[in-house]
């Protein structure tokens, strides 16, 4: 469950990127966040992922007030939220599977257990057999799927993705969206920031539009 | 507990990988630290060897009063009695060596007997050999009394026989203090080198650190490989420093022994004992770790 109550976000003394945002997303929902560039979609996802605190207001993730969490507790919140950023942030000095192993090292899994879970995650996103490739040898779509494998390997209850299909052709974009839909079907709350109307039309059950820092909820698009 | 161990195993693996990925840079850092560490180890080895030898030397302060050649035969006994009475607390023992006894002693030595045979009469004076009691300010006492006794009637010369031993002891004490200062200087070298190494590593690992934080890494998890890197650098440097010091002591020991042999003694140079070396290695590893912690704290806030 994700809940925002009167949330404001600004940087320094600048204008509010988010202004009085209120919404609630129930467990297992599949939600699109749409809006023009610079509207605050990425900021919203960062707040949900616990990557940044709000300037004002209450943010609840899985029932916990993440805005009141001390800095040392936030990493544990991040483990419950799988984050996929537009720039995949993969490590190009190691193989694909080593990228997926990193979150498992963070949570202290044994090497054998880690390897089996990383392989399973790669298989789920359709990258079986590409474990030893360097990410640089992969296509844009494959790199994005690798980032998804890394985000889901610790079995988060929430998955958030910032423009995951932005630089992909339509076929690759749909494969990525299918992966998200599959995770959502097994109960993972999924939030995707996108401005691709055709994808939203095909996949969205609920869309939240953000413009000028304010929110409009469009259920059942 | 198992997860915690797994995290440590991972951090140690990352630290080794980072050392291995930049072999030249890592080796240079280890060399700088180990060469710095080798200097105090060699100095400690020299002090360790010299100290017991010096302690076996007669360090009790002996002062010899040589009387005037014109002094009457009973003068030595009279002066001795006066000194014993006046400085009973400072004098431990007192011995009179008459000019006849001294001549007899010299005649018993082949090198001197021929020279003495050509002399018309005994050129040696009566002498009083005074041994002073040991106490912390023995050097000052010896100095004061020898000056005072030089002014006595019928005393021609005063010789402080053990002054050189005391000077040598003072020199060793000075070197001992110098060794501590050197060790502190080396500690600064270790801190600075590891700090800079970790700073550069943190800068090159920015992306990995950012991603680790993104997937829920705690700050301890981010710092841990750097702490291991600092400790490993310290341990490897210590091991190399001991090897360098051992190699340096071989020719140095030969040269010193050649000199010592000419004085009829031996000075076998050896490394400080194993426990001290292991403790020193652990201290260097801890210093490396602390420096890494300080560096990573300052350089991973992004």
Roughly what fraction of the amino acids of chain B lie in strands? 5-15%
Classification by helices and strands of chain B: alpha+beta
Encode the helix/strand succession of chain A as letters. EEEHEEHEHHHEHEHEE
Distance between the termini of chain B: 30 Å
Question: In percent terms, what proportion of residues of chain A is strand?
Answer: 25-35%
Poorly predicted parts of chain A? none
Give a count of the beta strands of chain B, DSSP E runs of length 2 or more: 4
The first-level CATH class name of the largest domain in chain A:
Alpha Beta
The helix/strand class of chain A is alpha/beta
In DSSP terms, counting alpha (H) and pi (I) runs of 4 or more, how many helices of chain A?
7
Features:
heterodimer; A: 221 residues; alpha/beta; Rossmann fold; 2 domains; 6-stranded mixed beta sheet; 4-stranded antiparallel beta sheet; 7 helices; 10 strands; 33% helix; B: 302 residues; alpha+beta; Alpha-Beta Plaits; 4 strands; 72% helix; elongated
What can you see in these coordinates?
Chain A is an alpha/beta fold and 221 residues long. Chain A has 2 domains: 146 residues, Rossmann fold, CATH 3.40.50; 65 residues, no CATH class. Chain A has 7 helices and 10 strands. In chain A, helix 3 runs parallel beside helix 5. The longest helix of chain A is centred in the C-terminal third of the chain and has 16 residues. The radius of gyration of chain A is 17 Å and the shape is globular. The model of chain A has no long low-confidence stretch (mean pLDDT 88). By secondary structure, chain B is α+β, with helices and mostly antiparallel strands. Chain B has 2 domains: 173 residues, no CATH class; 100 residues, Alpha-Beta Plaits. Chain B is elongated and about 100 Å long. The model of chain B has no long low-confidence stretch (mean pLDDT 85). At the A-B interface, helix 2 and helix 3 of A face helix 1 and helix 8 of B.
């Amino acid at each position: 469950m994700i809940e925002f109550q009167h949330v404001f976000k600004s940087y320094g003394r600048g204008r509010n990127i988010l202004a009085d945002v209120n919404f609630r997303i129930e467990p297992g929902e599949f939600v699109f966040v749409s809006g023009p560039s610079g509207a605050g979609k990425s900021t919203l996802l960062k707040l949900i992922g616990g990557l940044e605190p709000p300037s004002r207001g209450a943010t609840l993730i899985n029932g916990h007030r993440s805005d009141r969490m001390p800095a040392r507790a936030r990493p544990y919140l991040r483990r419950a939220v799988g984050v996929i950023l537009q720039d995949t942030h993969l490590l190009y000095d190691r193989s694909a599977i080593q990228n997926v192993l990193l979150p498992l090292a963070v949570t202290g899994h044994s090497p054998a257990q880690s390897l089996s879970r990383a392989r399973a995650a790669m298989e789920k996103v359709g990258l079986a057999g590409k474990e030893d490739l360097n990410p640089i040898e992969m296509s844009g779509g494959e790199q994005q799927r690798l980032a998804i494998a890394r985000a889901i390997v610790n079995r988060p209850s929430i998955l958030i993705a910032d423009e995951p299909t932005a630089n992909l052709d339509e076929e690759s974009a749909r494969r990525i969206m299918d992966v998200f839909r599959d995770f959502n079907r097994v109960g993972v709350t999924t939030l995707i920031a996108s401005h691709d109307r055709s994808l939203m039309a095909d996949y969205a059950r609920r869309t939240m539009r953000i413009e000028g820092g304010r929110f409009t909820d469009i259920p059942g698009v | 507990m198992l997860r915690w161990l797994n995290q440590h195993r991972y951090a140690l693996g990352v630290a080794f990988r980072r050392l291995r990925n930049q072999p030249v840079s890592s080796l240079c850092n280890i060399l700088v630290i180990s060469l710095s560490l080798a200097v105090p180890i060699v100095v400690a080895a020299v002090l360790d060897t010299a100290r017991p030898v010096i302690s076996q030397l007669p360090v009790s302060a002996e002062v010899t009063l040589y009387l005037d050649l014109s002094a009457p035969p009973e003068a030595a006994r009279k002066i001795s009695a006066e000194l014993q009475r006046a400085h009973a607390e400072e004098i431990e023992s007192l011995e009179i060596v008459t000019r006849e006894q001294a001549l007899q002693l010299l005649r018993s030595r082949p090198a001197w007997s021929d020279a003495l045979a050509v002399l018309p009469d005994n050129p040696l004076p009566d002498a009083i050999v005074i041994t002073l009691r040991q106490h912390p300010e023995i050097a000052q006492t010896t100095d004061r009394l020898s000056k005072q006794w030089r002014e006595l009637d019928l005393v021609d010369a005063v010789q402080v026989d053990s002054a050189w031993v005391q000077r040598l002891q003072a020199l060793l004490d000075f070197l001992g203090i110098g060794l501590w200062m050197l060790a502190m200087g080396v500690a600064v070298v270790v801190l600075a080198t590891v700090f800079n190494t970790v700073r550069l590593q943190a800068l090159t690992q920015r992306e990995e650190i950012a991603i680790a934080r993104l997937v829920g890494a705690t700050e301890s998890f981010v710092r841990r490989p750097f702490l291991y890197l600092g400790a490993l650098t310290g341990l490897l440097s210590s091991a190399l420093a001991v090897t360098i010091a051992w190699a340096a002591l071989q020719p140095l020991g030969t040269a010193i022994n050649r000199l010592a042999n000419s004085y009829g003694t031996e000075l076998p140079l050896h490394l400080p004992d194993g426990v001290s070396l292991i403790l020193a290695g652990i201290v260097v590893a801890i210093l490396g770790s602390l420096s890494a912690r300080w560096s990573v704290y300052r350089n991973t806030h992004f």
